[in-house]
Backbone:
């Protein structure tokens, strides 16, 4: 597919995915008012995995081999259990919009790690400028005072960055080891593995869950598990087919504005100007790394 043009259906898929994932940060904030972190994550991955198993069985998709199950277990740990938990804990101390902006550095960190492991991801001068701009953007968001006055808010912001490193590590692991598995089956295996990790952990740390919850909390949990996880994976692979892997990185830039919008409407969140300046630098850094806009301007 031409990387410079997107069809209407591709744009609709990308915008839908960004809207859903942007809403997931709002859902976190609403759920965490009543539900502990590990219980939230356990519910998210458990119900999403069960939903995807229905899809796998209905579509009669091939099941992974024993070795592939091991690879998917590591993926579930790196791509679901760790980052979901870090994001959830982080959002107990920072705004949902700010969390989404920090989470937007995933693509940048993934590229930085990939350039160390894969020869075809070499670090050019333009891409180096992109990484520097993105790093400055993250520093502006977190704030220089975080180093001198380190507190829970600073730690929460760092937990979002660690979540991005976990996502990036999962991408490196998948590229190196995950081959020959249907994408939907892979997503199902990841979430199942994460459930095997998170459900016992939640019971051990948070205790027996209570479902005597406010209707807003229950609705948010359903949204987080089904549309924002199970359905989002299906939409992700559809968007990948329609837009291509290069254009799919646009979602990273579209999610934070959606999350900020949801947070401002529902939670009346107001972010500092530094958050928007930092996001602008991260977005500019992604443009340098992607390179297509600069190449088009050069032409």
Residues:
């Amino acid at each position: 597919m031409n990387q410079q043009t997107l069809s209407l259906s591709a744009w609709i898929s990308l915008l839908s995915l960004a809207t859903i994932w942007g809403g997931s940060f709002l859902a976190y904030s609403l759920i965490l008012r009543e539900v502990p972190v590990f219980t939230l994550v356990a519910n998210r991955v458990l119900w999403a995995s069960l939903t995807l198993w229905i899809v796998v069985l209905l579509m009669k998709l091939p099941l992974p081999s024993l070795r592939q199950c091991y690879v998917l277990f590591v993926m579930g740990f790196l791509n679901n259990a760790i980052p979901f938990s870090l994001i959830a804990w982080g959002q107990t101390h920072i705004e949902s919009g700010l969390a989404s902006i920090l989470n937007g550095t995933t693509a940048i960190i993934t590229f930085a790690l990939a350039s160390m492991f894969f020869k075809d991801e070499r670090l050019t001068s333009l891409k180096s400028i992109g990484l520097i701009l993105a790093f400055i953007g993250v520093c502006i968001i977190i704030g220089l005072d975080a180093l001198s006055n380190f507190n829970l808010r600073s730690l929460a912001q760092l937990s979002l960055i660690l979540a991005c490193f976990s996502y990036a590590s999962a991408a490196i692991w998948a590229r190196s080891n995950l081959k020959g598995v249907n994408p939907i089956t892979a997503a199902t295996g990841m979430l199942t593995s994460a459930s095997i990790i998170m459900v016992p952990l939640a019971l051990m740390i948070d205790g027996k869950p209570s479902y005597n919850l406010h209707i807003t909390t229950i609705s948010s949990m359903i949204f987080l598990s089904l549309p924002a996880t199970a359905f989002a994976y299906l939409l992700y692979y559809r968007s990948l087919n329609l837009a291509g892997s290069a254009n799919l990185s646009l979602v990273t830039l579209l999610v934070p504005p959606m999350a900020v919008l949801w947070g401002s409407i529902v939670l009346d969140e107001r972010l500092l100007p530094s958050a928007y300046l930092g996001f602008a630098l991260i977005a500019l850094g992604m443009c340098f790394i992607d390179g297509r806009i600069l190449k088009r301007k050069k032409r």
About this structure: The mean pLDDT is 87. The longest helix spans residues 215-248. The two ends are 20 Å apart (CA to CA). DSSP finds 13 helices and no strands in the chain.
